[in-house]
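Bumping with the actual sequence this time:
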Amino acid sequence: MLAKIYQLIQKIDQLDYVVEEELAAILLLMLKLKQPLLLEGPPGVGKTEAAHIIASYLNTDLIRLQCYKGLDVNSAVYEWNYQKQLLSIKISEPSDLSTEEKEAHIFGEEFLLKRPLLQAITTSEKAPGLLIDEIDRADEECEALLLELLSAFQISIPEMGTIKASHRPIVIRTSNRRSILR
């Protein structure tokens, strides 16, 4: 295990990031166990940069969700492209489709605007990194969304059902102070 830690330190050093043995061991365990990691500390110590470095190390995309008070499902998970839906409804008015068929159509994936959490679980090529930055700023509503995502790696969209992760993202959460989610 110690040899793997030093290998990780060397590879991360090549990415111009300095990491101590303790953090390298934690990052290695996070990757091996495929569990979310919470990095706490004062601003400016490199918590966010650690997520960028891990994504570079894994040669994968990093998707970032910046938390703040009032963050809602429309900003964190998804929203519907209402203008495109309305246009589609107007265009399909003279068609012979039933109301149910029209409804199924306008709540299809082509009208879905994917926000960071949905992007993170629907990436088809390989597991992305997911940075949930400053999680301590999120309110209870957002924490409920994150709980579903981090416990089962799935998201429920009422009009579409439950969407499960195609690849489990590598999750790093950051906090500048004590957080409720651990």
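The tokens above came from a reply further down the thread. The mean pLDDT is 90.
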